[in-house]
Description:
The protein has 155 residues and is an all-alpha fold. Helix content is 74%, strand content 0%. It has helices spanning 4-24, 28-39, 44-66, 72-81, 85-93, 100-112, 116-129, 132-139, 144-148. The mean pLDDT is 90.
Amino acid sequence: MKTESERNYEHYLGIMNRALDLFNKRKLKDARAAFNKLKNSGILEFQNKAEVYLEIIEKILSARRTKVEEEPLEKAIRLINEKEPEEALQVLDSVKDEDAKIWYLRALALTMLDRTDEAAEALKKAVSMDRRFYFLSRKEPDLFPLWDTGKLENL
């Protein structure tokens, strides 16, 4: 028999999975609603991940309101999700913003290309700018190979 804490965790895990699915399907307004529920979950790992995704969603939605052309951050995320890391890096290289999200996305793309030294440095930079990316990176399957290298031991 599961404890109330275990049931609560599973409940919010289900919401997290749904939110990520909605995000990946570009249903950003529905994803935003799901991530907002997670912000109030009382579970730190879900709250941290939700805050990061909510910031990304707001940036994408804001760009959509002001631009017809795909915004670089949105394009990079789409390319990473489509397993096109080379193209994602080209887009990220064109961004002049020194933002933790940009460094985190670089780490994802570089890991996918097995450029682990560069990926580790990019993730370290992202985490140094925003500690929430540490927690997010620990749960990101695309970054598991980077963590397995041991290059992030001092993170």
